[in-house]
Amino acid sequence: xxxxxxxxxxxxxxxxxxxxxxxxxxxxxxxxxxxxxxxxxxxxxxxxxxxxxxxxxxxxxxxxxxxxxxxxxxxxxxxxxxxxxxxxxxxxxxxxxxxxxxxxxxxxxxxxxxxxxxxxxxxxxxxxxxxxxxxxxxxxxxxxxxxxxxxxxxxxxxxxxxxxxxxxxxxxxxxxxxxxxxxxxxxxxxxxxxxxxxxxxxxxxxxxxxxxxxxxxxxxxxxxxxxxxxxxxxxxxxxxxxxxxxxxxxxxxxxxxxxxxxxxxxxxxxxxxxxxxxxxxxxxxxxxxxxxxxxxxxxxxxxxxxxxxxxxxxxxxxxxxxxxxxxxxxxxxxxxxxxxxxxxxxxxxxxxxxxxxxxxxxxxxxxxxxxxxxxxxxxxxxxxxxxxxxxxxxxxxxxxxxxxxxxxxxxxxxxxxxxxxxxxxxxxxxxxxxxxxxxxxxxxxxxxxxxxxxxxxxxxxxxxxxxxx
Length: 469
Known about the structure:
Strand content: 15-25%
Mean pLDDT: 95
CATH architecture of the largest domain: 3-Layer(aba) Sandwich
Number of strands: 21
Number of domains: 4
CATH superfamily of the largest domain: Alpha-D-Glucose-1,6-Bisphosphate, subunit A, domain 3
Number of helices: 15
CATH topology of the largest domain: Alpha-D-Glucose-1,6-Bisphosphate, Chain A, domain 3
Low-confidence stretches: none
Structural class: alpha/beta
Distance between the termini: 30 Å
Radius of gyration: 22 Å
CATH class of the largest domain: Alpha Beta
């Protein structure tokens, strides 16, 4: 058995290297053993879904067979679906859990395994630790006899139709381009908005296990097709979702990237000022200064968590927190009244609702936020750095931070998740090494594009220099 470790949301590995049928069986058996250990005396039921990656339907069928071999009622969805649909169904139907075969936004050579807990969200760190403890403890047991193949239900769609002012959106003028990046977002946004004056065109809607040659992550370097479509068609907004449709991305009317910090800020202000909702706000360690400033101005309590939406989900599960919205830098956003989970389809519709309600192009909405709360620009770079070398850099920056960095005075250091250098004007630079793959992520938010390029360029130069090779 290869080393199997759950990351921020499930286990992911390279197909045919570590991601094999044998290892999927091992992980599923661990889930079955975990569920069996919970007791309760009632029958165990698990819903199994999958994305559009190479072999996902076959891996999902194998996982369902292992669940069935452990006397767990396994329902295998008959087609690919957004991950939020599985989470929604698990909660709605009171199931024991859900399994989704997906590697989310990872490159095409990867696949993965997500476990959704009964509350309708990603497994908590405590649940993940229990599943990992069962890995390899029992040989996988398989049986196809108890597997039922079912069509995806319509309840998730009906929820979305109620959660967003679809009638108002359909009456709006203009064109929206949806880009699911060949993932399970498919034509969901287009179909939900059909039937009105608003025109919606979907690009990259068909299944392509190679995702057109880019990773299905809605970041600017992967959204060239969306940018081009917006400019050629004169669209008012571009909406993107990742490979399993739990993350959202956007581009404005000029075909320029609306970063995930800006999306969270737009949605927060829309919920608070136009929908007149109140509550707490959560942001992960790599999210924006602007989100904190907005929360302060509204008198909303602000939580800051380590990176990974599971930490926000934990806050959403605590009723006393009254969390209105929470978001991470990578495009995962959760809102009150839904599942404690990211949902790229819902957030695409909410973002469109915010733009239509404002009656202004997205670029002007962003400029208004800058005028009120300060101008900030953001960039993230993912660098190929050995795990131990990256960890050493993060530790050294924390233990002996520089007085100046790229000519800017360092006024503070934060170490909630990685090492963040904070500068006089609240610009910041964060070094964070992945614990499961040789990737060092360098995040930066700064008050000008010039300062952003200078800070993140120096961060990359140091990380890739001979000291950490």
